[in-house]
Amino acid sequence: MDSRGGKITVALVVLCVVFGAGYVVYAALGPDQTTTDAKPKAGGAAGVPVMVRAVDPSSPTLNGGVFVVEDGAVRRRSKDLACERVYYAGGHGICMGVAPSGVDYVAHTFDSELQPQHEIRLLGLPSRARVSADGRYGAMTVFVAGDSYLGSSTAFSTRTTILDMATGKQLAQLEQFDVTKDGERFDAVDFNFWGVTFSGVDSNRFYATLATGEHHYLVEGDVAARSMRVLRDGVECPSLSPDGKQIAYKSRMNGENRWHLRVLDVATLKDHPVAETRSVDDQAEWFDDDTLAYAVGNDVFTVPADGSGEARLLVRDASSPVRLDRQIDS
Questions:
Q1: Do 200 and 240 meet the contact criterion of CB atoms below 8 Å apart?
Q2: Whether the Cβ atoms of residue 49 and residue 70 lie closer than 8 Å to each other
Q3: How large is the C-alpha radius of gyration of the chain?
Q4: What residue ranges do the domains of the chain occupy?
Q5: Which CATH architecture has domain 5-323?
């Protein structure tokens, strides 16, 4: 067993610890109280249809309905979906949230009519979700507790799972992939992965964050080969532009849990800040090759990717912005 093998085998212990934590958080909730009736409010024009998850400012961790914002109008697309995190591409989507019990966490895949297809029990608190442009693969990250190297049952690590979106089958955890750095095998018991973003032309290829010690590495991975390689340090929650030439990411400020959005050039790995000055704890979404969308607090904003302009409000009381294309049924 390698140094990460023990981390993977504690999954059942982690399951008990995290669901116990979930019970503490949601014990006061009944089965009909896990979802808010909040509705997003359009704050600006995106130029493209946008899917979002509704946020109740008084209880932002409750599941929120899935809405589409287009031309200043907000409409609920599905009575069957309520999530903490949502993503959609290529005719398939992922909805992660609190289970109806109010105790556990669950994910559903859904189709182009926003109808749930497969249910997946989650090991912990929903964090990130992505679907490849062709709808072949999905990726989900959850926060879990109980890993022995953390030194505290209240500290959190991550699990990131690759899904077959057609079947809902969990194909692998990134913790099981081989990693290289500077051409050499790279491994540590405290490896944590999150923020998967898929290539738009080859769904086998992806980028993600690998955290170990004080480092947050950008890695490039291959689903079929079950492998990743380290590209550079200081990158969290990468998001690849549609043309595959740029990556938006969170840059940690002075080692604190505060982040600035930056954009790097994939070819040179050189980067620059965007005009958003607030801390952004989100995985940005690209509306096109020039514009980013992301959540700050309980609202969604946009900003030019080249560092010009300023941040603009797009949707109030919303999170998880997703650009929609013509693959979604109207």
A1: yes
A2: yes
A3: 19
A4: 5-323
A5: 6 Propeller (2.120)
Q: Which residue has the tokens 């509704």?
A: 54
Residue 231's contacts (CB-CB under 8 Å, 6 or more residues apart) are 207, 217, 218, 219, 220, 269
Question: Would you write out the chain's pLDDT as a tens digit for each of its 330 residues?
Answer: 455 655 544 433 333 333 343 433 444 455 458 999 999 999 987 788 999 999 999 999 899 999 999 988 899 878 889 999 999 999 999 999 999 888 899 999 999 999 999 999 998 999 999 999 999 999 999 999 755 445 544 457 999 999 999 999 999 999 999 999 999 999 999 999 999 999 999 999 999 999 999 999 999 999 999 999 999 999 999 999 999 999 999 999 987 889 999 999 999 999 999 999 999 999 999 999 999 999 999 999 999 999 999 999 999 999 999 999 755 555
One-letter amino acid for residue 196 of the chain? V
This prediction's pTM: 0.89
